[in-house]
UniProtKB/TrEMBL annotation:
CDD domains, per the entry: RsmI
Gene3D superfamilies on file: Cobalt-precorrin-4 Transmethylase, Domain 1 (3.40.1010.10), Methyltransferase, Cobalt-precorrin-4 Transmethylase, Domain 2 (3.30.950.10)
Residue ranges constituting the Tetrapyrrole methylase domain according to the UniProt record: 13-213
Gene label: rsmI
Domain RsmI HTH, chain residue ranges per copy: 242-286
Protein name: Ribosomal RNA small subunit methyltransferase I
InterPro entries: 4pyrrol_Mease, 4pyrrol_Methylase_sf, 4pyrrole_Mease_sub1, 4pyrrole_Mease_sub2, rRNA_ssu_MeTfrase_I, RsmI_HTH, SAM_MeTrfase_RsmI_CS
Record organism: Pseudomonas eucalypticola
Subcellular compartments: Cytoplasm
Stated family: Belongs to the methyltransferase superfamily. RsmI family.
Reaction(s) catalysed by this chain's protein: cytidine(1402) in 16S rRNA + S-adenosyl-L-methionine = 2'-O-methylcytidine(1402) in 16S rRNA + S-adenosyl-L-homocysteine + H(+)
Amino acid sequence: MTAPGASNSATGTLYVVATPIGNLDDMSARALKILGDVALIAAEDTRHSVRLLQHFGINTPLAACHEHNERDEGGRFLDKLRAGESVALISDAGTPLISDPGYHLVRQVRAAGIQVVPVPGPCALIAALSAAGLPSDRFIFEGFLPAKTVGRRSRLEQVREEPRTLIFYEAPHRILECLQDMELVFGPDRPALLARELTKTFETLKGLPLSELRAFVEADSNQQRGECVVLVAGWTAPESDEAVSAEVMRVLDLLLKEMPLKRAAALAAEITGARKNVLYQVALERQKSS
Ligand code: SAM
């Protein structure tokens, strides 16, 4: 039997190699060996990867494989593989193809009947999930949300009643807006966790209900820096058989600030079409817990 990862044909092998997401000690011994052994490394950004490889004393030649060229340049890597030489695919950090280039290349190589071998290692979403304390038996990865508010809210609406744990990547300059929209769509009490700068000096894992997490990030601009993953607990059906949506809650909360509870519940029911007595009960609970 051929050992996993060993090529048993005249063609080479494409190795998909994970690299550290911050802490260089997370580079695996197997990744180092493969990166040193292959004929060519296909890298998302060769200038970035050359520093990583230099750090580990690896001199394998690099070629660019990024989102703008991977469809067209696939042929170049295929030629090498067909000639019996192996290639390693790496991205700037973490696991290639996970919100990173590589999908088109892997498809092309597999379609050509050439072996593709994963060399697993760091991945921000898995690292965050492994330490979040949120249900990890079932989860969905949503990648990056749209940058603009309308698109972001609409994507969040699509997963509002998703029961599995939700995982998102987000850019630091959008983290606050992202949490504000999550609070609006998922409701203030949904458990969430911000995993920032994983494996690095300022690593922070902060688990709080969404409204508190948003306030925490709003109050401290340091929390709006660095790389981050946001995890949100999946939806659980309310105990009452009448679910009250986050949008209805938002209307009710706004009205509660302006008028007595009974009037607010009645007006919110008129505006949203939700049942008045249900909103009244919800408003009562809201007042008790505030
Ligand atoms: N391929 C990578 C992986 O396996 O996680 C992800 C690449 S994607 C372009 C970059 C995003 O991943 C960042 O914007 C952030 O959301 C997340 N990320 C990467 N490194 C991280 C880290 N050290 N801590 C927290 N999030 C990280």
